[in-house]
Structures are given as structure tokens and as C-alpha cells.
Write a structure and sequence with these properties.
- Helices cover about 30% and strands about 25% of the residues.
- The protein is an alpha+beta fold.
- The chain has one domain: Aminopeptidase (3-Layer(aba) Sandwich), CATH 3.40.630.30.
- It has a 7-stranded mixed β-sheet with strand order 1-2-3-4-5-7-6, sandwiched between helices.
- Strand 4, helix 4 and strand 5 form a beta-alpha-beta unit.
- Helix 1 packs across helix 3.
- It starts with 5 loop residues before the first strand and ends with a strand.
Length: about 170
């Protein structure tokens, strides 16, 4: 990892423009790799809702937002409540992680792992389980989470997308 001075802090409404720019940049990169799911889902409205209804942390180098992750105790809107029975650990207040993003020019430097580990540390204070979902076609991202101890939950489809659901017990 390169020697960068990084600051990790909670984002607020005043960070919206930078967050939207980061998510757009990551969405464009994902699209160039053949994954259009972020471009369709992360609209300006959804990004604002994340800022208002979740805890979003940002990773900065200087004043530039280079990474983010959303932490929530609310099930994603596209999830189906009857699918909850498929989770191994029936935590009544699991932490849901989403919107893990690192600017394409800062990828492959361990920053996504840094954001994920930070989020897991926060989650341990409130939950016994962390849940997240990944587009099945994004094999590298699926491997990323498996390597970090996330366990695939029996495949659940949300809407028409092919999504893998993961869970990690953090007792």
C-alpha cells in the first residue's frame, strides 16, 4: 500500500456532491467491467437517502473523497422479508453494509479492506451479524468477501437481479 495520509470520518449532507461523484466514478468503472447494477441502482436520490438514513463513512486523502461504505440496521428496500429465514444467524438487529466503493485510481491498495474492517468493528458494538449482498456476476467481489470470512447464504433473488447474500457472525 502506498504511503498516503488518509482520514476516515462520517459523512454528512455537505459531502453529498463528493459522494455522488465517487459513486458515479465507481459506477462508470463497474460498467466498463461489464457490471451495470450500480449505474441502475445508485441514483442521486438513493445516495441522498443513504446519507440521511444510514451511517456513511468516507475515506479521504486530503480533501478528496476516495472511498466510502454505508452502515445500517435497516434491511435494504429491495430485500424480501420472507427471505430472512435463510440466514444462518437470526439476529434481530443485524448490521447491513452497502455501497463499499473505492475510487478506481486508488484501488488495489487495501483501502476497501480498511473500510470493511472499520465497519465490522463498529458493527460488533450493536449486532451479532453483518449482512451484505453482491451481484453474482462480480466474481472478484464475491471472492473478496469470502476471503474476509463472509459466508454465502442460500441464494436469494431480489427483484430480477441475481444477487448473492452474505453473512458474517461477529459475536
Amino acid at each position: 500500500m502506498s504511503k498516503m495520509l488518509e482520514e476516515l470520518r462520517q459523512l454528512n449532507i455537505s459531502d453529498f456532491n463528493q459522494l455522488e461523484k465517487l459513486i458515479t466514478s465507481c459506477s462508470d468503472w463497474l460498467s466498463s467491467e461489464g457490471f451495470d447494477n450500480w449505474k441502475e441502482y445508485y441514483t442521486s436520490e438513493i445516495i441522498m437517502k443513504k446519507l440521511l438514513n444510514s451511517i456513511v463513512y468516507g475515506l479521504f486523502v486530503g480533501k478528496e473523497l476516495i472511498g466510502c461504505i454505508s452502515i445500517s440496521n435497516v434491511m435494504p428496500v429491495y430485500s424480501i422479508s420472507e427471505d430472512l429465514k435463510y440466514y444462518t444467524f437470526q439476529d434481530k438487529n443485524p448490521t447491513h453494509l452497502s455501497m463499499l466503493a473505492v475510487s478506481p485510481k486508488y484501488q488495489k491498495q487495501g483501502l476497501a479492506t480498511k473500510l470493511l474492517e472499520f465497519s465490522e468493528k463498529l458493527a460488533r458494538k450493536k449486532s451479532k451479524a453483518i449482512r451484505l449482498d453482491v451481484w453474482k456476476k462480480n466474481l472478484d467481489l464475491n471472492k473478496f468477501y469470502i476471503k474476509r470470512g463472509y459466508v454465502l447464504v442460500p441464494e436469494i433473488s431480489a427483484k430480477d437481479e441475481d444477487i448473492n447474500y452474505y453473512e458474517k457472525i461477529v459475536k
